[in-house]
Structures are given as C-alpha cells and as structure tokens.
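Appendix C: a fully annotated inverse folding record. The material below is reproduced so that readers can follow the format used throughout the book. The structure is listed first as tokens, followed by the designed sequence.
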C-alpha cells in the first residue's frame, strides 16, 4: 500500500511514529515523515493502525 501524509494538516502529535515506528518518524520540526525506503509503500500492518490513530486524519493509504 502507498502511504501519503498531508503535511498541511499534520499537527505533529506523533501517534503515527508511536504506533508504527518501522514506517513513520518525525522530522526536525516534529511533523510526521516516512522512514527512508517507505516512500513507495509498505506491507507493514501497523501502517493502517497508524493512519487510524492520526487525530487529524493526515495519513492516507491507497492500495497499489
């Protein structure tokens, strides 16, 4: 699945990085970012949980 982060609405709560640390991190400003190598998608089942955990729904998942 492909993961996209809407950086315009991300508030930097960090729920994604806490839920799926193998997929997400936080940048120097504290906002959500994908770990290197995850830009083109992942099969990590925690990515879906991380998208649900986002309080502002900034994470979108699309099946490829």
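Designed amino acids, in order:
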């Amino acid at each position: 699945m492909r993961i996209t982060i809407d950086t315009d609405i991300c508030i930097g709560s960090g729920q994604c990085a806490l839920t799926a640390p193998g997929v997400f991190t936080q940048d120097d400003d504290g906002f959500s970012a994908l770990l290197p190598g995850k830009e083109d998608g992942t099969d990590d089942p925690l990515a879906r949980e991380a998208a649900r955990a986002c309080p502002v729904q900034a994470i979108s998942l699309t099946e490829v």
